[in-house]
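Customer escalation, tier 2.

The customer says the design service returned an amino acid string that "doesn't look like it belongs to this structure." They asked us to rerun it and document both sides in this ticket. The original structure tokens are below, unchanged.
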């Protein structure tokens, strides 16, 4: 079977790492030259304006470097810092250029940059973990690069393509006020996807070709044998919390229970835009995996996650600013979709390998957590730092979003999604075992 375009592109970049890295560095240097992208950037401010970015950016960069590099060697620290810096700088330059033709507020630019850092960290950790597995299986650097390209590269292409289509649809059919935010996130998602298919394989090749072996992953934390009732009790509490938040969020979308002076969220939430994004993401999943169960699970779980997030946001932020609901939806679904695609890749691989349903769920979640757990930690740190360095509504929103992302990752993606996706086992996946 002929390799896909993503595999061929990633393999070519892995074979020519010096040229690819040099091209990206030249592009960033040229794009960041003063005056190249104009003077009126991101509405009334710019990414270089201290009132927009300098209050939180240096504080965010340091925790990211520490958290991402903790399980890795100094070489991987350099790779991580270089990849995140290039992707962020490129996204900022492109956003500055796009903001000249599309009215884009500093809030949209900051939210988009937080999203792209999260997505870049996810891509990087997924690729590095796949590299470890490939090397541990006895593959040389060339073969390991091809394995990473065919797994993590395809996952990046599927998730990035699905999000690009959904955000484009939202920008076209949603309210005019939502178009700048959708455009900003669309730009950064495209930059992160292109970088994960070109720059990341080139940097990863340098790591694989190093004479020093990759350090082992840190061992799992042992907490002893827990009583039998602890795990089901925790799972039940998490699901009930999610259900209550989703019910309350659905009630607040169209009404204001127990709050006569509160406006329904539908007044500030573009229901058409949110529905379009959910439907397109479900259809994109169906096209990618050709499995109705996965597509329906994607649509339902994303819908529940959005309603629960809105319910928690209303409870935690009072009064609720009009821009908060839509920013929360986009900030939630974009990184969640990347994590979901990676989990589906793991579930599909284990199912086609012949594992039982129970072992498939346990094995896929265990192997995916090494990457997604680190990405979640970086995301929490970023939103916390942004919230602690801002004031007023933005501060409350950022802190509430931190809690929303933790609940979505742990309950929706790692608890509910795997159990729904393995229904039917291997007979439901479109590609048979060879």
């Amino acid at each position: 079977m002929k390799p896909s375009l993503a595999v061929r592109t990633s393999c070519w970049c892995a074979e020519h790492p010096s040229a690819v890295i040099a091209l990206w560095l030249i592009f960033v240097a040229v794009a960041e030259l003063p005056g190249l992208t104009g003077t009126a950037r991101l509405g009334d401010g710019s990414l270089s304006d201290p009132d927009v970015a300098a209050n939180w950016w240096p504080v965010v960069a340091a925790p990211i470097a520490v958290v991402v590099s903790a399980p890795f060697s100094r070489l991987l620290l350099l790779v991580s810092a270089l990849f995140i810096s290039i992707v962020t700088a490129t996204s900022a330059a492109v956003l500055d250029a796009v903001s000249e033709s599309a009215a884009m507020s500093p809030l949209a630019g900051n939210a988009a940059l937080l999203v792209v850092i999260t997505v870049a960290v996810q891509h990087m950790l997924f690729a590095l973990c796949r590299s470890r597995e490939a090397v541990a299986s006895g593959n040389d650097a060339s073969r390991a690069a091809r394995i990473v390209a065919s797994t993590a590269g395809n996952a990046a292409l599927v998730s990035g393509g699905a999000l690009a289509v959904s955000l484009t649809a939202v920008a076209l059919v949603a309210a005019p006020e939502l178009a700048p935010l959708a455009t900003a996130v669309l730009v950064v998602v495209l930059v992160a996807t292109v970088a994960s298919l070109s720059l990341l394989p080139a940097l990863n090749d340098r790591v694989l070709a190093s004479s020093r072996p990759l350090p082992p992953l840190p061992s799992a934390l042992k907490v002893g044998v827990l009583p039998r009732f602890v795990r089901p009790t925790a799972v039940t509490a998490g699901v009930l919390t999610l259900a209550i938040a989703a019910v309350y969020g659905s009630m607040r979308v169209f009404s204001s229970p127990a709050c006569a002076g509160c406006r329904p969220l539908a007044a500030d939430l573009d229901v058409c835009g949110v529905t379009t994004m959910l439907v397109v993401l479900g259809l994109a999943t169906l096209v990618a995996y050709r499995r109705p169960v996965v597509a329906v699970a994607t649509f339902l779980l994303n819908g529940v996650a959005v309603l629960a997030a809105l319910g928690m946001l209303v409870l935690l932020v009072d009064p609720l600013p009009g821009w908060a609901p839509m920013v929360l939806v986009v900030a939630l679904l974009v990184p969640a979709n990347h994590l979901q695609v990676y989990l589906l890749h793991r579930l599909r691989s284990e199912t086609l390998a012949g594992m039982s349903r129970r072992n498939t769920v346990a094995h896929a979640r265990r192997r995916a957590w090494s990457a997604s757990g680190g990405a979640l930690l970086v995301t929490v740190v970023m939103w916390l730092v942004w919230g602690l360095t801002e004031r007023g509504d933005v501060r409350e929103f950022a802190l509430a979003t931190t809690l929303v992302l933790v609940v979505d990752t742990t309950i929706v993606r790692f608890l509910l999604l795997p159990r729904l996706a393995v229904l039917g086992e291997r007979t439901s996946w479109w590609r048979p075992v060879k």
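Tier 2 assessment: The sequence is consistent with the input. Residues 308 and 372 are 21 Å apart (CA to CA). The chain has 15 helices and no strands. Sent an explanation to the customer and offered a walkthrough call.
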